[in-house]
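Task card 7
Instruction: Convert sequence to C-alpha cells.
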Amino acid sequence: MKNQIGLFGFGYTAQAFAKAMVNRGFTIYATSRSRQVREALTNENIKVLDFTKESAEQIIASCPFIVQSIPPNEQEIDPVLSRFKPLLIDSAHRIQWIAYLSATSVYGDHQGEWVTEESESLNPGTTGILRLMAEKEWLYLYQHHKLPVHIFRLAGIYGPGRSSIERVLSNRTFSIYKPHQVFSRIHIEDIIQVLDLSLHQPTPGELFNVSDDLPAPSHEVEAFTLNEMNLPPLPLVHIDKINLSPAGLEFYRSNKRVSNTKIKTLLNFKPKYPTYKDGIKALVTAYQSSLKK
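Output:
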C-alpha cells in the first residue's frame, strides 16, 4: 500500500490533516490555486501543486487515498468532478479511499432538534443545496463505478487560530443572541481522527456526521472563552437588532443539534475534545503559554 494521500484543496482542514498524516508516515500531494500557499510550504513530505489537469493526473494516478475539500459553487457543483470525473472513473481500481468533506448545512433548519445522517433536508439555503448536489455526484461514482467514496458532513470547525478566542479578541463589543439557537462544532484534531480512522477501515458509500457531544449557542461559547481568559463577558444583543450579511442570515437561520452516534459506533470514534469546553480550555492554555514566550 502506497502511503500517499492526495488533497484537492488546501485550506484550514486539509493543511491540518496533511501535517498530521506526515507525522504518521504519509507523503502528501495537494492542490491549491494560491501561489502564496504553494510557495510558503517547506515540508519536504508535503508537495503543493497548482490546480491543473497535470497535477490532478499526478494525484489520481499515484495516491490511493484522496480528500476533496474544495467547496461547491454555482458555476460548477464540484470543481474536481466537473474537470476530472473520467480520470477518477478510469482509476477506480487503484483508489482505496475517497473522502468528500461536506457540511452539516445540508440539513437546513430543524428548529433545534437532533439530526442524524438519515434526517431530511429542510430549507438548507443556497450553500446547503450546493453541498447536497455535490454529495450526490460523488455517491453516484460509488454506486455506478465502485469508487470508494465516503461523505463527511462537518459541523462548525474550530481549532488553533480559528476559534472563539480570535472572535473575542477582535474588538467585538457584543455577542449575538438568538433565543433557543444552537450550533454543533468539532475540533480540528477530532476531524483528523475521524478521517484517519476511516482511511484505515474504509466503509464506501457511507455518510458521516462529524460533530462533538455538546451543541451550544455561540454566545455561551464566547462567554465561556472570556471566563477562561479572565476577561469580562460581552453584553448580548438580540439578532433582530443586528444588520447581518446574507451569509450571516443564512447561518443563523439554521438551528439543529448534530448527532455523532454513527462515527462512534461504526468508526469507534472517541473525541479528544468531547465538548467545546474541553477544546476551548486547551486553546486558551496554548494561547496564554504563547504570550509568555
